[in-house]
Amino acid sequence: MGSYRGMNLGDEVVLWPSERLFIGREEECQALRDWLAQKLAPTFVIGLHGIGGIGKSTLLLRFFQIARDAGALTAWLDARTVDNTAQSFLSALPSVFHSTTLASQLTAQHAVLAIDNYDEIYGLDAWLREVLLPSWPSHNLLVVLASRQSILSRWRLDPGWQRRAIDLPLKPFTLAEIRQWQANVSRTPTQEIPAETLYEQTRGLPLALALSLETPSIPDTTGLPALWNDLDEHSPSRDAIDILALTLVAPWNFIQEILHRPVSLAEYQSLSQLAFVRRTPQGLTLHDLVRHYWYEHLRTKRPEHFTQLRDKIFRRFVHDCRVGTPTSGTFMSQQFFWLFRDVFGITTPYANLRALLDQFEPTPFRREDTEWLLNVSRLWQRESLPVSAEDAQGFLYEVMTRFPELLRILRRQDTGRPVAYMMSIWLTPATADLMRAYHPAFTDALLDALHLSQENLGQSNTTYHLTAGVDPTQHDYPRDELMGIVIRDAFGLMAGNRNLVMAQVPALQQFLQTFGYHATTFHSGDAILYELDLRQLPFARWIVPVLARLSHSALIRRTDITSAEVKAAYEHLHDHSFHLADDSVFSADAGPIWRRGLKDLLEPPFIAPLTAQDAQVLHWVYVERHTDPISAMKRFAFSRASFYRHLRSALEHVTEVVQKTF
Questions:
Q1: Which of 8-12, 262-266, 378-382, 564-568 is least confident?
Q2: Which of 283, 325, 361, 654 could cysteine-pair with 251, CB 3.0–4.6 Å?
Q3: Rounded Cα gap, residues 591 and 553, in angstroms
Q4: What is the pTM of this model?
Q5: C-alpha distances in angstroms, 65 versus 272, 282, 591?
Q6: Cα 122 from chain centroid?
Q7: Same domain? 524 vs 472
Q8: What is the domain-level CATH number for residue 144?
Q9: Does residue 510 share a domain with residue 468?
Q10: Phi, psi of 510 (to 5 degrees)
């Protein structure tokens, strides 16, 4: 399968929104055309923002189309495919956008960089504002950012950017715009529905209007069941849509591989022209609201199909991680977490990761959150930075003022009210200086334990998850479920980073160990520093055991695992019809996961005490299925007795690994 970073369908990379369906936003589109017409146009940053279904990505694509038609240099980034590191961001850009070549290009040409889902890389906001964009030309460059929340507050406070940062909130369509939209569409019965009725039922949301073209009923803002029922019965592309529901984005060849059949260009284009499907340089993607609904419908109404399809996609993702497909670690982590969003069945006193509370959304920090966050943070236990309560408030206020991108706020989608937060410090010389100002001895000791200095901090890709909390005044939802959403959001951003947490509470320590964190030798009082280093560890080697531990019917039923039981599991790696006994150490219905997990243990890097020779012997016998001891003796230059001794030793070693990994 090709990379998720792009796909080639002739010269066309993005399928633009249909002319007949795109309405409104004429003032903004004309402003872009006027900017492109200037010989020496000033550089601007535009922030498109609004609720789900309001048309952010559609307008972003239209801007991209206008710029491309005008002959401008163009680049499109889906921020979900980019790690929260400067290196990852730069590697995702076309070479022409690198600073060394861009200046010469923009003497005679304009350039437009469009970034969708910018919320996902908001941690890079300060770097983009203060480092990258100032290194680019101050003319003929336009950067357009699409996000759920307004993210330009810091830009508009910056003297260098305040006149060059344009905030563009998107609002629902007016009644007049709906009438214009009806005039543009040629399909009935939508044309025959009074505009006033459409306006009342859809509340002017572009997504709801677009869905009315795909189903004979009038969809309101939550009327997705009618869409499903119609397509479930009539759509020839339903199986492909099922794949899109279980992935964040799927390229053409990925869809073909999962379906096990060719998908013609005509079929692919027909699928991409559905009102709730977008085609981006990374592939096809469902609108977020439709994806949520479709996933849950598959999971609850067609569970057998759902399980089989998920296993196919899971094996493809694991393969991509193993062979080193040039895909962002963060993107792959988000793909895995979406694919198994229902599997997080762990419930501890600290967090319930199974909670699927879609009415909440993790967002960047807003200035109006200041008083709320200061009040909630008074409950901060502060073992992660041992300072007084007064100093803790001062530290937090400085983070809100100087580094707001380090804060994630969980808020209700309907009211925007904040209910929980997380503060994760990206360790750089500047943030280390801030920590040092409040507790120099602790900060220096921490950096020494991590072998970090002021010189190498900026390249360490180290994130210190400092604190998280839930508003104690809200009583509508359990604390552990809200904390689970906050932590799931943080997990989606961990790939490619070294992740650190100070933990004193036993429930938190157990929680961290479940996810592969290990205790370091660094202590502060009774708190222990836990580390999960995903900078070099292949993502699949981390996620498979985690999924095993968290699946509804756990991969491992008992902790007293014997080498005989592990041997039995290896002997049935290839027998997909085999069902383990109910009292087996391995659960039967987690078969695809434990089979994949046991195979992955035999791939480097190996977990002690398993050695490379152990893995080779086990792979030869159980994966490649060489049962003849004579061939094994030739392969490894062992005597018959030595071969069986090595095999027994390898099984004992891998059993130890299973015990502590699964």
A1: 8-12
A2: 283
A3: 10
A4: 0.56
A5: 16, 17, 47
A6: 13
A7: yes
A8: 3.40.50.300
A9: yes
A10: -65, -40
